[in-house]
Amino acid sequence: MKFMLCLKRKKPLKWITSIGNPSRVQKVFQESLVEQAKASSDESEALRFALNRGEDSIKYYEALAEQTEDNKEKRFYLALSREKRNHYLIILDSIEYLTAPAGWLQLHEKTLLEG
Predict the structure, then answer these.
(1) Rounded to an integer, what is the distance from CA 91 to the centroid of its chain?
(2) Is 3 helix (H, G, I), strand (E, B) or coil?
(3) Residue 57's CB: how many other CB atoms inside 10 A?
C-alpha cells in the first residue's frame, strides 16, 4: 500500500532506498531480453512471452525474500512478488480470452449454454 502511494506521489526512490542498502540493487533484465521482446504480430505469442517473464520475476522476488534477513526487505520483495503474480493472472486470463473466447465468456459472464 505504501509502495503504491509513493509511486503516485512520484517519490518511490526515497522510500525504496530507505528500506535497504541501495548498493545491493541489481539489474533485473538482461540486455538479451530486449532482443527477445521485439514486436510480434501474434497477440498470444506476445502474451506468452510476458507470461514467461512474469513467472521468472515471481521466482526472482521470492528468492530474494528468502535470502534476506531484514524483515522490511523481505516484506518489500514479497509485495513485489504478489504484484507480479497479479500481473501473471491477468496475462493468463488474456490468453484464455484469445484462445477460447466462448469458454472465457462462460466463466466470466456466468452464461449457460443452450442447445
Answers:
(1) 9
(2) helix
(3) 19
User: To 5 degrees, how large is the angle CA 99–CA 103–CA 105?
Assistant: 105
Distance from C-alpha of 28 to C-alpha of 25, rounded to nearest angstrom? 9
Quote the CA–CA distance of 73 and 65 in Å, as a whole number: 7
Dihedral (Cα; 17, 18, 22, 26), 10-degree rounding: -60
Q: What's the rounded Cα separation, in Å, for the pair 63 and 74? A: 10
C-alpha cell at 32: 538479451
Reduced to 3 states (helix: H, G, I; strand: E, B; else coil), residue 62 is helix
CA of 48: how far to CAs of 21, 39, 55, 96, in Å?
34, 13, 10, 11
Q: Does the predicted model carry a pTM greater than 0.90? A: no
Q: Using one digit for the tens of pLDDT, what is the confidence trace for 46-69?
A: 899 899 999 999 999 999 999 999
